[in-house]
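Re: beginner question about structure tokens

> Can someone show what the tokenized structure looks like for a real chain? I only ever see the sequence side.

Sure, here's an example I had lying around. Input first:
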Amino acid sequence: MPAYDETRFNPPAPTCEAVLRDNQTGNTIAGVVLLLDSGADITLLPETAAKSIGVVFENGKQYEIMNFDGQRRSLPSVVVDLIWLGKTFRGRFLLVEKEHGIIGRDILNHVTLLLDGPKSLWDEWKHP
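And the corresponding structure tokens:
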């Protein structure tokens, strides 16, 4: 079971590493750190990871989001494959200027996770 990340987050939070793949060129980057956030509607990816594999940003398309504190901002988007837990999620994802991204409910609703807060561990729960 992966441990919660106590380096980037206080209190420690569940994070994972995923692979991003440009579905046009096949270029990939592994080890993309993402916070597991069931309070987030959508998944946000680190802009540096997308740039490193040469993903073409959707020309002129910006999407407005509202942070939990009510602040609004516009973010660029890319269409990529996010590979996590042996599954491929192909879609349009917004980019943030942070070292880590966020896996939101658009992806979390397709997996079953066990969060063990007292032990600061998480894992995918496999149906028997």
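Each token stands for a local structural state, so reading them left to right follows the chain. The mean pLDDT is 94.
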